[in-house]
Amino acid sequence: MKPVIGLAVGRGTGSEVAAVFERVLSALARVHATDIAIERSPRTYHSYVSLKSAGGIDRVRELTREDAEHYEEFCRTLARRGTTAVFRTAINAQSLYLVRQRLRAVKVDPITDGDTSLLLVRDEAQGFYTGENQHSPGLVTRTMAFSEEITDEVIAFALRRARQEWPREGIGQVVMAYKFHLLDGALDEWVSRARVRHGVDIALFQPDTVNRNLIAFGPRPRTVVIAGNEWADIMHVVLLDRFGSERQENRCTENVHLHPDVAGLVEYQTVHGSADDIEGKDTVNPLATVRAAAAIAERHAGCAGAMAATERAIRLTTERGVLTPDLGGGHSTTAVVDALLGVLERCDEAAAEPYRERPAEGAGASLVAGS
């Protein structure tokens, strides 16, 4: 049966990013002599910039709800049909986090460079980033929640994913970064029970303590950081730069949904945002999108070696100086993709072997990783 991949497109540079994704996925399918179908959401979702131009606060709230409801149903429909992956360009965060709350999402990013090995698992299902707003003149009241059930689901997922990431060496340490001092001691009790339940030592710290320890000592080998978005959204880019030698513009990540209605559906996204300021200029950095297409092709469409071959193509293209302006180059998005695909379509699997990675959760094979 032909694999089907979902595609959800937002405003800003979303249409340009989506075009890169479709082009690269098609090229990878051609190289692997397979056929991949794309099911595109019929709605173009708003970015924050496009929402602000749509009208006042009431109109923004209405469109935010509409986008969230539509994207949630799109994901549920994909999951019911057996689709295991969806690529989404950046959309307005408020709509996105309503969906993440309802579908109990976690973001996963393994950050590695040399001896450093850190697995960041972002709790997107609860906390300040989720919740509802109530408005009165000159006042916004935001109501959100934490729950022991969701906290334990996130911990259980993080431990499972870490064991898949390091099947032989095992987990080095588990650290949780949350503002637990604001929760009357409830989170401490939940984590204490989780330690016993999962048989794992879990260190719960304030975010500033995690920062201090990382600055002073760096992460221990095979560190799992489970974090609320209040810290992780800000620190993700810093961790990539400091411990992964990577920039957010080049990076894609996975969002795994823990709600049973959509279990098995993995959402891939670029780490960079909608970049409305460069919309239509053909200068958006395509590397994160290219990597997302390769990960989906390999993990969800049977294109063995696609990620390794793509990394080789990126390396060779970068060494030749074919880069978009944000990376110091002078090439357009189209020119960079042209160069990458020129290398990729001549690359055989053996040449890419040193860059091979394992498949990720939701792919129906052994599991590992991929605002």
From TrEMBL:
Names of required cofactors: Mg(2+); Mn(2+)
Domain (Isopropylmalate dehydrogenase-like) ranges: 4-340
Pfam assignment, any one: Iso_dh
UniProt-annotated stretches for the region Disordered: 352-371
Domain of life: Bacteria
Keyword Metal-binding: yes
Record keywords, A-Z: Manganese, Metal-binding, NAD, Oxidoreductase
Full protein name: Isocitrate dehydrogenase
Source species of the chain: Streptantibioticus parmotrematis
